Amino acid sequence: MTGVIVHFICRGNSFRSVIAEAYLNSLEISALSAVSSGTVGASHKAENLVYYRMTLDLLERHGIRDFATADHGAQLTQLLLDKSDLSVCMNQRVYDEGLQLVTFPASTRIWSVADVGEPGRIVQTESHRQLYREDAYQEIVAHIDRLVSAMPTPP
User: Fold this and answer.
1) pLDDT exceeds 50 at position 1
2) Which end of the chain is more exposed for a tag (fewer CB within 10 A), N or C?
3) Which CATH superfamily is domain 4-150 in?
4) Backbone angles phi and psi of 100, in degrees to 5
């Protein structure tokens, strides 16, 4: 049996989708794996390096750094999307941007995880940034836990 590949999509592929990929892969569920990309991953790669490093630190604090992708800034493409069994956009903005790049399958899921800097997570201080990043991590974990619990178990 081939495994189910879940493709997590955010904007820059430096924060939300990286967390989702690392967390799902850290669960080490046989026949289930994750990949990630971003709608502006390639064009914002250099400027997002600082955020990717913050994400790695966050994953380290949660003990799942080893499951993170070795790089950031993977660009959403139709080829990458077509290799996946389930696509998950982190929010409506990501889905709307993605429509300019790819044709999503009807089964694509759209979560409502705001990025740092988007409404609901506007940074006023550095402590806000850390709090919002942790909040997003917890939201993503809860979404993935629900996703996994709803998946059929293989025989």
Assistant:
1) no
2) C
3) Response regulator (3.40.50.2300)
4) -80, -10
pLDDT in tens, 87-112: 999 999 999 999 999 999 999 999 99
CA dihedral (72, 42, 124, 144) in degrees, to 10, reads: -50
Alpha carbon dihedral 58, 63, 66, 72, in 10-degree steps, equals -20
Which residues does 60 contact at the CB level (< 8 Å), separation at least 6? Answer: none
All structural domains of the chain with their residue ranges: 4-150
pLDDT digits (tens, 9 = 90+) for 127-139: 888 999 999 999 9
Q: Let me know: does 72 contact 48? Beta carbons within 8 Å.
A: yes
